[in-house]
Amino acid sequence: MKLLIRLCLLLLVCPLMVNGQYTLSDLDKIYGLDPLLFNGKLYSYFPPSTTGGSPFFNGPEFVEGSARIRGMSYDHLLLNYDVFNQQIVMQYKNDQGNLQLIVLSDAWLESIELEETHFEILRLEDSFPQIYQLIGSSPIQILYAWRKELETDNRMGSTYLKFSKLKKESFLFSGSGLFKYKNNRSFASYFNPKIQTDIKKYLRQHQLNMKKNAGQDALVELLNYCNSLSKP
Asked: Rounded CA gap, 69 and 98, in Å?
């Protein structure tokens, strides 16, 4: 029985990058048969080839990233974020050289890094675990909840489907809950009335439009400013 379990787990293991992919034997040396990393299920969502676009965050290509699972960090993984199904997917090669995809279990998954984008899996009160892009540091941070939808292709007479462009909801996060905002006015309204004028002035001076996608560096600076005003 132990041998059978090990053989099954080996099918789900992956490590160092070799020719742009990960192979079983090297990751086994790094992480062993760590159930925190390798207890997910095989990825099984493959839409018809006629479906336009991709369900993934940055398209179908997997990128090098890392994952934090129950306090343990795992680096040099090939990851992607299936936004349509809200799943984090890991790619590797098995011993036969075949590509395999596994969904990282959200039971203990805490966060992932995809290149320079940081995502956290939050378990807020009375809700299922959800994936958010997180920007900035405590006490107040920005969260983006991303999604994609299947839409009918708009070409004349088309009966095909395509994945929509990325859509997002924006939130301020204080550690205890989420505050949804849509523009500069609703962003500033979250804060103490005594500092709202200062925040609105900062947004105007730096030409920040919170309804659109502002650069991450600019958002970090904005949050640092807001957090400094919020201190007693």
From this structure: 26
